[in-house]
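Q: Hi! First time doing this. I have a protein sequence and I read that you can turn it into a structure. Is that right? Here it is:
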Amino acid sequence: MRRTIAAATARPEADSPVQPERLRTEFAFELPRGYVDESGTVHRSGVMRLATARDELIPLRDDRVRENSAYLSVVLIARVLTRLGTIEDVHPGVVEDLFASDLAFLQDFYQRINAEGHTRAAVTCPACRENFAVDLAGGGRLGES
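A: Yes, that's right. Below is the predicted 3D structure, encoded as structure tokens:
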């Protein structure tokens, strides 16, 4: 389920009624390696939602974060993952058991969708020199086109 909310402003389209701009709040991804659960099932695809201010503040009260500041990313990532494979209850214990490369991927993905405000990047084709935009959160793995 992809949630959207109407933006505060709308863009008028030529010869059409004013349509509210939609804000994308959930982003699909695929982990480089995948989370392996107790039964040996590998979960690679998932969904991360945009973080709220509350998502960033609540982990600061967590005793595990107070004892070890590096644990902040584990708690924060667990709060914003809405699904990982067939797992819908993603908690810090699940994130702790990710491979380091998958955690690094999710930290980078979190930064791209939250801090930068979008997942589009301007690129230039090396062959024809044409400029265009690509969506980095299209669900593919980093480095794949």
